[in-house]
Amino acid sequence: MNRFIPLVSLFLLFLTPSLSAQETDRKYVGVRECDGCHGGGAIQYPNLVNSWQIWAQDDKHSRAYSDLVEKPLSKHIAGWMGLPLDQPASWKKCTVCHMADVPQERWGEKFDPTTEGVGCEACHGPAEDYLIPHKSQTYAQNLQAGMFDLKDIRARARLCLDCHAGLDHEIVAAGHPDLNFELFHFSFWQPPHWNYAEASPFNFWAIGQAVALEKTVNDLVEDSNLYQPIPVFQEKSCYNCHHKLDRDRWRQVEAHQTVVRPLVKNLLGEDRAQKLDADLVRIRQYAIDSLPSDDRTRSLKDLGDQLTAGLVDDVSKALSTQPLDADFVRSLLVDLTEPIPQESEGLKPHLPVAWMVENFNNAEQVYLGIYSMIYAIRYYEAPEKSTKSMASWVTEQPSEEGLLAAVDQLFEFVKHSKVANRQVSYDTEGFNQTLEKVKNEADR
Fold first, then answer.
1. Domain boundaries of the chain, sorted by first residue
2. Has residue 18 got a pLDDT over 60?
């Protein structure tokens, strides 16, 4: 059973990195310049992966812009947002993620993001200076020439999260499908054009979750700047009247907190986990319960900085210095089966929440975390299998059929992408009862 396709299809709604940290004047040369070595011509270079061919044939990123233009849902969303339906290239809130969104003066002769969507350079960086020499240069030299450092899992996760988290509220209200992010499944269930052994499944999951918490907290803090204590009516913005839109941001923070808390407890210790909880309680109080004010904004930003400062790096350092094995991962798996609260403590909706299902995002991250732990256990038991197909890897252990069956039952609660279907299939009590079955099987 392919348990993840409905969930992962949400994650694959396309990504392109923010250029702020790596902005230069280098030009983008276009995906066709990569084809010669990484596509149909790669037979000349047997040690190179056919990454261009995989992207062009099977990767949804290659169809990011065409889907934006052609799919009825896209036109529906654009219509609700008042965008000109005959000018999709001008939909800046959409094109920022549905193609490599770079100024036209940086387009090379063969570069056109409206034909290639999210192409090679959207993730690997503008290739003007590294295209020719990168076959013979060191990796460090390629980075100096403009290549993005995707071997650093932290950088990779942050790049993905630029588009796979933190949707603009206007887009959500107009009907854009909900997004939720988990780096391990995102990385391994789309057609991969990299080596499975770049990092363990556990490292992908752990760093991805730490970065996701960092990103969702920062998004929540950034949104606080939108609120005006006194409406400024001459500015045509929904936020002038409707201040309390941060609940939608908070549910994403809470979802990642649900799994990061046990990760931090097992990896960095109970004291650090308690501090994480205390910091998030204070952030929630400022973000949800406090009225807009300059003091609120400053305090929330200070708290956000304190929470995220060092968390990702500390998790990354612990992963590289602490001895990790299957028993460690099993212990964390059991911790992930703690029941999800029936209601989000202290949170009351300030606006209609038709696009939300209470605690669904928490349950989704718990499910993905538990399945990631099963992969991680397999990895530590037999790391040589990490280069095999991930789709069949887990099911090669018939002795744990009971655990896999219980996890499959969890999947039935969280498999839907449409809110209406979630409302029918998901309930917290039933999910928690199934979590108990998972815990019992894991403890055997």
1. 18-147, 152-444
2. no
Residue 266: partners with Cβ closer than 8 Å, 6 or more residues away: 328, 331, 332, 335
Q: Between 153-164 and 311-321, two packed helices, what is the crossing angle to 10 degrees? A: 140
Q: Are 339 and 430 in contact (CB under 8 A)?
A: no
Residue 415 neighbours by CB distance under 10 Å: 18
The angle, 0 to 180 degrees and rounded to 10, between the axes of the packed helices 246-268 and 360-381 is 30
Cα(332)–Cα(375) distance, rounded to whole angstroms? Answer: 13
Of the pLDDT bands very low, low, confident and very high (cuts 50, 70, 90), residue 14 is very low
Residue type, 272: R
**Environment class of residue 437 by beta-carbon count within 10 Å: exposed (0-12), middle (13-18) or buried (19+)?**
middle
The residue among 64, 61, 249 whose CA lies nearest residue 166 is 249
pTM summary value: 0.87
Mean pLDDT of 223-242: 54
Beta bridge partners of 28: 107
Give yes or no for a contact between 256 and 227, defined as CB atoms under 8 angstroms apart.
no
